Structure to design on (298 residues):
């Protein structure tokens, strides 16, 4: 695999991201390639962990407005960049990415840091990967807070997602910052758009962002059996599981119905509807924080 690393200088102009970078090297089990994972680690090291996982095509910058309030409440926040995004290493070929590889990479990262007592806070691909992590190592997790995401196991994709998948595959341009801006349901500032563009100096860095939509396991996707095995875990999951989807996301609107009732841990939780688009962290960060704190305090 050919590994690309975004120069640190690309992130130098970001003014609203006052967090120290942390790095951990993992090894791809298939060919031994060394990959550097970037993550944030804020708050007391002995406190319960809130694992904030971003999705496509964002990076941990997405959670910049949520980290400080959770830390101020006495908890530890760990927020990684997935391989292919943010300050983590990127692979130049689409063929070097897969859903299973991403789950394996992030599991190796979490185990190397020996993260326990985690509450997963996730959205978009942060849920597809994060929920698989919960299913594979449930003893390391104490709860889940899910917004605008899911764990598809086949079936027909929503029309809005099918359009997005086709765009990611065929569009001659793939403007990351403008894509996030369109899904945020508010006008991001030029500086914020530039921050989302920063990890991708040119198109060669975007292979992961381009291929991710094709991995979502609708229809007869190769990952469907893995998803069904994960669902077997969640059908027995009795730890807190809170859904806080937004009211303005055409892709995931109503997705909480797939979890509430089916996952035992959803019973009695204060599920709610947040105000905003797909990237709820940009629209209702405090609402998302409030939901996280309800679960982690429980």
């Amino acid at each position: 695999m050919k590994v690309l690393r975004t120069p640190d200088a690309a992130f130098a102009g970001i003014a609203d991201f006052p967090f120290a970078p942390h790095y951990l090297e993992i090894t791809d089990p298939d060919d031994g390639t060394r990959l550097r994972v970037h993550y944030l680690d804020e708050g007391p090291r002995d406190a319960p962990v809130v694992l904030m996982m971003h999705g496509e095509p964002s990076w941990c910058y997405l959670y910049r407005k949520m980290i400080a309030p959770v830390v101020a409440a006495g908890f530890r926040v760990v927020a990684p960049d997935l391989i292919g995004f943010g300050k983590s290493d990127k692979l130049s070929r689409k063929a070097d990415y897969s859903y299973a590889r991403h789950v394996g990479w992030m599991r190796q990262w979490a185990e190397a840091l020996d993260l326990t007592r985690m509450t997963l806070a996730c959205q978009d691909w942060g849920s597809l990967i994060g929920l698989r992590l919960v299913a594979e190592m449930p003893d390391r997790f104490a709860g889940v807070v899910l917004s605008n995401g899911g764990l598809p196991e086949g079936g027909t994709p929503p029309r809005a997602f099918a359009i997005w998948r086709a765009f990611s595959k065929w569009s001659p341009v793939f403007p990351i910052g403008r894509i996030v801006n369109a899904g945020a349901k508010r006008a991001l500032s030029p500086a914020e758009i530039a921050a989302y563009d920063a990890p991708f100096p040119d198109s060669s860095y975007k292979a992961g962002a381009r291929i991710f939509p094709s991995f979502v396991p609708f229809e007869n996707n190769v990952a469907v059996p893995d998803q069904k095995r994960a669902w077997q875990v969640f059908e027995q999951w009795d730890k807190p599981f809170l859904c806080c989807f937004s009211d303005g996301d055409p892709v995931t609107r109503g997705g909480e119905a797939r979890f509430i009732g089916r996952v035992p841990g959803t019973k009695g939780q204060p599920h709610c509807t947040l105000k905003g688009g797909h990237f709820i962290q940009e629209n209702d960060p405090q609402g998302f924080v409030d939901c996280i704190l309800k679960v982690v305090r429980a």
